[in-house]
């Protein structure tokens, strides 16, 4: 149980890899509508720090919360779960 972090981790897809050391990761989920009860698609867009620029557009990645690295960036890349199809 050493070195275990209590930081939140989540899995999403890289939507943009244009910036240096930054990736835009989309986490999609289903949420129940408060009035009608129907499940609707929702998404959260995270700015993720990728120190070595190893992820690419379309990759499925695992990210975790970290201290703020910039005004909008407070997540960091843990690992690439799966490379994009056809890469």
Walkthrough of the structure:
The chain has one domain (9-82): OB fold (Dihydrolipoamide Acetyltransferase, E2P), CATH 2.40.50.140. The protein is mostly beta strands. Helix content is 0%, strand content 53%. The chain has strands spanning 9-16, 22-32, 39-49, 60-65, 73-82. A 5-stranded mixed barrel has the order 1-2-3-5-4.
Topology:
Blueprint (H helix, E strand, L loop, with lengths): L8 E8 L5 E11 L6 E11 L10 E6 L7 E10 L5
Parallel strand pairs: 3-5
Antiparallel strand pairs: 1-2, 1-4, 2-3, 4-5
Structure, briefly:
0% of the residues lie in helices and 53% in strands.
The biggest beta sheet is recorded as:
5 strands, mixed, barrel
Query: Strand content of the residues, in percent?
Result: over 45%
- Rg from C-alpha positions? 15 Å
Number of helices: 0
| CATH structural fold name | OB fold (Dihydrolipoamide Acetyltransferase, E2P)
Low-confidence stretches: none
N→C terminal distance: 36 Å
Q: Would you report the number of β strands?
A: 5
CATH architecture type: Beta Barrel
The CATH C-level class name: Mainly Beta
One letter per element, helices H and strands E, the order comes to EEEEE
What is the global morphology? Answer: globular
Keywords summarizing the entry:
87 residues; mainly beta; OB fold (Dihydrolipoamide Acetyltransferase, E2P); five-stranded mixed beta barrel; 0% helix; 53% strand; globular
């Amino acid at each position: 149980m050493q070195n275990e972090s209590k930081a939140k981790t989540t899995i999403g897809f890289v939507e943009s890899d244009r910036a240096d050391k930054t990736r835009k990761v989309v986490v999609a989920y289903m949420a129940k509508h408060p009035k009608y009860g129907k499940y609707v698609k929702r998404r959260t867009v995270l700015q993720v720090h990728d120190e070595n620029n190893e992820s690419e557009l379309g990759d499925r990645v695992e990210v975790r919360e970290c201290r703020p690295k910039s005004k909008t960036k407070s997540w960091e890349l843990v690992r690439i779960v799966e490379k994009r199809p056809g890469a």
